[in-house]
Design a protein that fits this description.
With about 200 residues, the chain is of the alpha+beta class. The protein is built from 6 helices and 8 strands, in the order ααβββαβαααββββ.
């Protein structure tokens, strides 16, 4: 009887060990996915954004985060520049709630983009206007990227250059028929004369 009880408890111990091992491995796979997956698509996102904007786009870090109980792709320290020029724009954190499988496959997917802070250097706008490749911006690839966007919200926008201007939060939304731009509770310029930005 004692031998039978010991044998059963040994079997239960063996099953619980296998179960714990399986759970630990599953947890390890989930953690590895959250760490490795964003880095595998970093290059393709940089290339895609460069094609859409016609400029060089660099990304420092990509990660997956939870925001409002949704999984979002967080892109940190985005710099938009051209060869031989200082960056014209930078974004500290861009969060995108998009379908990750479609993103990995390179399919255009509608999404909501939330930008924490957008910094635009207006002192070099003239140089950038002369080198922007309008063919790529206005191509079907560039326009499909724009049309795939459902909404873009920018919490803080700073225009720096000869004069510094900080804008109120901006929201751009798109439905089937129109694109709407809204700014909350702020006139863009406080003086009657519009400052020169380039």
């Amino acid at each position: 009887m004692l031998k039978k009880t010991l044998l059963r408890s040994f079997n239960v111990l063996k099953i619980s060990t296998w179960l714990a091992t399986f759970i630990a491995l599953a947890l390890l796979v989930v953690v590895a996915f959250f760490i490795l997956f964003p880095q595998t698509i970093k290059g393709s996102i940089e290339d895609r954004l460069s094609q859409v904007t016609g400029l060089s786009v660099g990304i420092d870090k990509i990660s997956l985060e939870f925001q409002d109980n949704e999984l979002v792709l967080a892109v940190r320290n985005v710099e938009i520049s051209a060869k031989g020029l200082e960056p014209i724009a930078s974004i500290d954190v861009l969060r995108w709630d998009a379908n990750l499988i479609a993103l990995y496959r390179g399919i255009e997917i509608p999404g909501h983009i939330d930008v924490n802070e957008l910094l635009i250097d207006t002192s070099s706008i003239d140089e950038y206007v002369s080198i922007i490749n309008t063919d790529s911006v206005l191509s079907s690839l560039g326009l499909s990227g724009l049309l795939a966007l459902k909404s873009l919200s920018i919490n803080r926008t700073k225009l720096i250059g000869d004069q510094s201007v900080e804008l109120a939060p901006i929201e751009i939304t798109r439905d089937k028929q129109k694109v709407s731009l809204s700014m909350r509770d702020q006139s863009i310029f406080s003086s009657p004369q519009v400052p020169k930005l380039g």
